[in-house]
Every structure is written in C-alpha cells, then in structure tokens.
Amino acid sequence: MDPLTEEQVKKLQPTTEELKKLNEKLLDSERLKSQFLSDIRNEINNPLTSILGLSQLLKQAEESNTGNAQKLGSMIYKEAFFLSVQLSTIFTAADLEAGELFAEMGKVQIVELLSQTLTDFQENSAEKGVTIRFENDIPPEKHHIITDADKLRLVLNCLIANAIQFSEPGSEAVVKTSLDENEYLHIAVEDSGLGIDVADQERIFDRFVQLDTGTEKKFHGLGLGLSVAKSLVELLGGTIAVTSVPNQGSTFEIILPQDIYQDQITDDVVDEEGLWIYEDAEISETD
Fold first, then answer.
1. CATH code given to domain 106-286
2. ∠ CA 91-240-286 to the nearest 5 degrees?
3. DSSP 3-state assignment of 276?
4. Which of 55, 69, 163, 177 could bridge to 173 as Cys pair (CB 3.0-4.6 Å)?
5. Of the candidates 269, 285, 287, the residue with the CA atom closest to the CA atom of residue 174
6. What digits encode the pLDDT tens for the residues 123-163?
7. Would the pTM of this model clear 0.90, i.e. be above it?
C-alpha cells in the first residue's frame, strides 16, 4: 500500500481530532454513569436504612414515652421525605428520557404552592440551622396562575433542597416571587453558600454532573436535580438561569410566561402578620 500523501494526511487530521473528542466524551459518559450508580446506591440505601432502624426503635418505644416517639416519628418523616424527593427525581428523569412526560396545565395558587413546599422542608432547614425567608411581591388578585403544579413543585423541591444544603448553618436562604411588566412569573431562590465558578455555571444543568465528587464528597445528590429542573421548566415554557459569586452564594431564577387570572381571591395562606415561625426555623412572607 502506498504511503499517504501530505495532502491526504491534512484531510484526515480533522476527522482524527473529531474521533479523539468523541472517544473522550464516551469515556466521560461511562465515568459519569459509574459515579451515578455508586451515588444512587448511597442516596437510596442510606435513608432507607435509617427509616427501617428508626421504625424498629419506634415499635420498641414504651407507650408512656410519647416525647421520644414524636422525636423518632419526626426523624422518620425527614428521611422518608428525602427519599421521596430523590425517587421522584429519578422517575421524572426516566420519563423525560423516554419522552413520556407532558405538561398538565391547571389553575394554581402560586403563593399557597410555595408556602406548602417550604413547609415540607421545615425539618431539613431546622436541622441544618438555615432560616428560609419568603418574599412575595405578587398582588393577591394575581396569586392564581396557569401551570402544572406537580412539575413546578418538583423544580422548587430541587432548588430549595440545594439552597438549604449549600448554605452554612446560621445563614439564610431567600425565596422571592414577582411578576414583570409582561406578567411573567419570576421565582428566585437565593442561598449564601459556596457559590459556583463561571466556568461551571452551564455544566451544572447537564445530566449526572456534580461539582463535588470523589471519596471525600461533602454534599449528597445524584447529579440529576438541576438537569431535571431545567427540563421541567422548559416543558412549562419557561427558562431557568443561575447567577453566582464564589464564596458569596448563588441565585437560581425561574421565569414562566403564562396567563394570570385577575379575579379577586381570599388569601388564607398567611396570617395577619404574614409570618410562619417554626422551632429553629423561620419562613416568612414579605409583601
């Protein structure tokens, strides 16, 4: 066989480079899958083991010791809630991958949805020592919006869980809601955590990507949450973006265009002072 000419070699060089890049992507994909399988084992097995152990203790608790039973029940709920969020994320990712997920739009009371979601994280925020503040700038007559409540709740679960996880004990996370001049809904979740380098701010929305990896991994997670959140927001016709400063914190903002109902409603979501206070945790609304 005759040797390749210089011109033929030059023509082959771009193809060779493309093959190298493709091979690197395949290797990286295999590494991410292996990391995911390892993480999913821990993320599911750990809370499940806790639930089983705590349930056994609850069964053995003396009937007169109601205080201890309540404490164990609270711990079981916290672990079960965490497991539920993880499984919902996995199932949603699978449905997205299969193209079997569709938006089911309906009339939703957005402040009520947010306050309930924040209440669901009461145990987690209290345990971490992170205060969650809710600032609502949407007038009462526009609290009803058109969206898919279940899918939006999954997005909020991801963002709020991350805000709590990456905030330092004794610090504050803030959830803000507002409407812009086009009456697009804005939901911003701010934390006071480690922040994200500019170079990583696009990558964090990719499937299986985690910035904290390795044997000394500090934060739990599967690397699915933000990618699923992005896909769900886009399914609802919106966008999600992050702004962050290293060592100062991050803000994730969702923008959802939709029809806003103008009818007057009775807002029974907050009390007269617009404030929820829990033991070791505070969730408040500021109009």
1. 3.30.565.10
2. 105
3. strand
4. 163
5. 285
6. 889 888 999 999 999 999 999 988 999 999 999 999 999 99
7. no
